[in-house]
Amino acid sequence: GVRDRVKPTRAGRAGGVNAFWQARLEAEVLRRGWVALAGRGHGVGWAAEASVLILGIPENEAVELGRAFRQ
Fold it and tell me: With contact defined as beta carbons under 8 Å apart, do 34 and 26 qualify?
């Protein structure tokens, strides 16, 4: 399956809003019964933030989830 990391902070949202969207993402992952690993994304010019690696997610569901979280 497709492995995908959804980063709900792509739009540069403030910390509290990031936490809100991360919690929604994690709840959706649990609801759908996917296996996911928590991580921390980081790069040049932006602070580290929570991320999720979803294992074995079908491509169509990864696309759907990405659209739902504006990725």
Answer: no
Q: What does each C-alpha distance from 3 to 15, 27, 47 come to in angstroms?
A: 26, 18, 23
Helix (H, G, I), strand (E, B) or coil at 8: coil
What's the burial of 28, exposed, middle or buried (CB within 10 Å: 0-12/13-18/19+)? middle
Give the model confidence (pLDDT) of 9-50 as tens digits. Answer: 454 556 678 888 889 999 999 999 999 999 888 878 878 888
* Measured distance CA(31)–CA(20) in Å, rounded: 17
CA angle at residue 49 from 47 to 52, to 5 degrees? Answer: 150
C-alpha atoms less than 13 angstroms from C-alpha of 65 in its C-beta half-sphere: 27
CA 20, 52, 49 angle in degrees (round to 5)? 60
